[in-house]
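User: Let's play a game. I give you a shape written as tokens, and you guess the letters that built it. Ready? Here's round one.
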């Protein structure tokens, strides 16, 4: 049974990357039974939900985001019975379950795509196939988000097909009625298995300009603000035609219609230009609950980054996060900074996304090139932080072989520092701070507060929140910041650390009172 109460307005969601969470059968790869066995830990933190990254049948060319059957569990991860047991256990612990939905593209091994290659025109219409130009070159200048040309030659059809990520991830034509019907059924199928919400992958890339106009060259400003690093030529274009974020936001009304009013829906934005404005468009009333951009992790949640978020977006509709299976672990190896940033995330109103292992402040692991499997990392090696580091499996036990993740050989090397783990896993360690913060944000209603004022300098940030329990002022100081003397009374919450990161949250009795 799903938890009876309606979804909280600003859920705290724990992201699980299934291959790397917990292995139950010794093959070195995390699986659903392993997740189920560890759900008490997640529930014990006090989060509202888990989001499982893609669990579907896939060649795993892109870590599960290249799907060949969206209605089946990857056999290495388990069975449908295992999934049902996971959902039942989660619900029993009061956790809701959010699944990834990768509607933007399929694997090139998907039966639809294989049929299209074999000449089935109705199936070809579910993708974007186009003839070559007369000189045999690709139809236009579009570049995929991973940086290679967005067109791949399909010799079987004597045509190119469009892909926005890897070549083996052909983009779907989401305006195609058969695709729409299949996606509607897909959402309802997973709901029939008890799923409470969805995370929509790459939702800002859903639609494209059907006239296939060339993208213009990026201006200097656009180039500096484009998604991706400077080593990725994706940043060289202004993506006016290969992705239509506003039209995709409009399309999100379909997702709401298919999923129904009670499902909690969030979307990933892969745009950096107008990122928050696009995110807000996805969250209009008949659309999604929330959307998230990569501004916070890319800006290291600096004072200016937070101010930018508050100036441009409704924080109730933006998911706050710092690390993921795509982005390096934040505050790597710095527990003081990790506790400070957790406090900042807890105080910011709106949903909060916590990536597996950040409750222990796991550092960003280093991997050698021959250990890495992610094609994006390998494409640009050694540029960039890479995406595989945060996918190194979770340690569960500082003393156990392979840290209790597996009885076999982990799929990526685990070189966690046992002494550091012992310290962070001990009572009073970082996970306890996360527990306190998660409880406190709910009890003090920071999660649903209005930000009535904010101010910042290079190394400090002040937030004034109007909560259901009265007004509070939160001050955050990065190392070197001078602490302002603004409150005589005992703070509601304070955090100080040798590293220089400090936070103080006080009642502001000049307006409203705090319930005892
Ligand atoms: C975002 C996912 O998080 C990432 O892992 C994937 O490579 C792309 N979308 C494409 O699906
Ligand atoms: Ca396994």
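Assistant: Ready! My guess for every position:
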């Amino acid at each position: 049974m799903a938890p009876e109460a309606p979804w909280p307005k600003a859920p705290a969601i724990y992201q699980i990357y299934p291959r790397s969470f917990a292995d139950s059968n010794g093959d070195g790869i995390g699986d659903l039974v392993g997740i189920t066995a560890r759900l008490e830990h997640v529930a014990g933190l006090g989060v509202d939900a888990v989001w499982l990254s893609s669990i579907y049948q896939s060649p795993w060319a892109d870590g599960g985001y290249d799907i060949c059957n969206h209605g089946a569990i990857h056999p290495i991860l388990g069975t449908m019975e295992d999934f049902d047991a996971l959902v039942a256990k989660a619900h029993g612990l009061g956790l809701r379950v959010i699944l990834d939905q990768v509607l933007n593209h399929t694997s090139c091994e998907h039966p639809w795509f294989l049929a299209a290659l074999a000449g089935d025109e109705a199936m070809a219409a579910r993708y974007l196939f186009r003839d070559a130009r007369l000189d045999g070159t690709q139809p236009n200048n579009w570049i995929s988000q991973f940086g290679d040309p967005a067109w791949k030659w399909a010799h079987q059809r004597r045509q190119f097909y469009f892909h926005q990520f890897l070549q083996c991830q052909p983009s779907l034509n989401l305006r195609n009625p058969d695709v729409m019907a299949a996606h509607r059924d897909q959402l309802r199928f997973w709901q029939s298995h008890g799923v409470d919400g969805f995370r929509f992958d790459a939702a800002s890339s859903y639609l494209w300009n059907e006239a296939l106009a060339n993208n213009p060259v990026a201006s200097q400003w656009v180039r500096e603000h484009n998604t991706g690093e400077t080593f990725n030529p994706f940043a060289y274009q202004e993506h006016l035609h290969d992705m239509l974020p506003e039209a995709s936001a409009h399309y999100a009304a379909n997702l709401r219609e298919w999923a129904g009013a009670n499902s909690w829906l969030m979307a990933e934005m892969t745009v950096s230009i107008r990122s928050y404005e696009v995110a807000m468009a996805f969250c209009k009333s008949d659309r999604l609950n929330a959307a998230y951009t990569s501004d916070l992790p890319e800006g290291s949640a600096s004072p200016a980054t937070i101010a930018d978020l508050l100036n441009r977006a409704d924080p109730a509709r933006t998911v706050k996060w710092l690390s993921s299976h795509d982005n390096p672990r934040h505050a790597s190896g710095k527990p003081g900074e990790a506790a400070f940033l957790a406090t900042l995330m807890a105080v910011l109103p709106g949903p909060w996304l916590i990536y597996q292992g950040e409750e222990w402040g796991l550092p960003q692991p280093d991997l050698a090139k021959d250990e890495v499997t992610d094609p994006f990392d390998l494409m640009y090696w050694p540029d960039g932080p890479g995406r595989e580091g945060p996918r190194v499996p979770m340690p569960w036990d500082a003393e156990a072989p392979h840290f209790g993740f597996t009885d076999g050989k982990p799929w990526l090397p685990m070189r966690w520092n046992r002494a550091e783990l012992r310290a962070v896993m001990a009572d009073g360690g970082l996970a306890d701070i996360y527990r306190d913060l998660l409880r406190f944000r709910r009890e003090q209603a920071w999660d649903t507060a209005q930000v009535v004022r904010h101010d910042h300098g290079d190394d400090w940030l002040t937030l004034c929140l109007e909560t259901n329990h009265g007004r509070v002022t939160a001050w955050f100081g990065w190392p070197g910041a001078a602490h302002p003397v603004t409150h005589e009374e005992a703070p509601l919450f304070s955090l100080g650390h040798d590293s220089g990161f400090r936070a103080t949250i006080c009642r502001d009795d000049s307006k409203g009172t705090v319930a005892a």
